Amino acid sequence: MASREICSFFALPRQVRDDIYRRVLVVVHPLYLFKDAHSPNVELFAPEKRRRWPALLFTNRQLNAEASAILYGSNHFTLVDTTSNQVNLLQAFLDGIGPGNAAHLSHLTINFPAAESQEERVVLREADLRGLKLLQEKCTGLATLETHVQGGNSKGLTVTSLAEEGSQFAREALAQVDGQFNAIPSLHKVIVRFYSGSPAPEVAELMQGYGWAILPGR
After folding, report:
1. CB of 85 within 8 A of CB of 126?
2. Global pTM?
3. How many domains does the chain have?
4. Which domain of life is it from (predicted)?
5. Using CA atoms, how far apart are residues 192 and 111, in angstroms rounded to an integer?
6. Is the pLDDT of residue 3 over 60?
């Protein structure tokens, strides 16, 4: 009976099957990813997901491949880590889902890349550069990248911190960030949400000049 049911399901047009996958696997809120520092496993929090939500993926190999494309391509994944360790969470998540599913990802939220001064140069923080390289190499279908500005990565971006760092710091930092974003060919939309302070007017103008959307934290 189970075999006949599976065959009957795959007799449906792919468009119909994809619609079923969306109804089961796509949720309206972000899917929050986090990892305990002492655990290799990435956990997922989705407050409105259905009971036994991912069970569909374990039916058979073909269904897993088709449904995974919808799961990873149509949901919004948010990395819950505001520290420089976020790159380890991103690495573990991408390794865990595999290269095929990583390529399906279309909407991610990460921290806005932080900049710092080193020997009279403005450079992006090494951990954030590693994270951006992972996106460039593995997330080849990424269309929307949402970034959060919070206390630890707001240097040179808010009204108060720009006064301390100077406009040249902001210009150099944002130019480097834009260069990294442009290295993701599939990327069409960048959102910057400010959770810590308001963006300095000059910073907002620069970001909008790069085509980024600036929004307040939710």
Report:
1. no
2. 0.90
3. 1
4. Eukaryota
5. 9
6. no
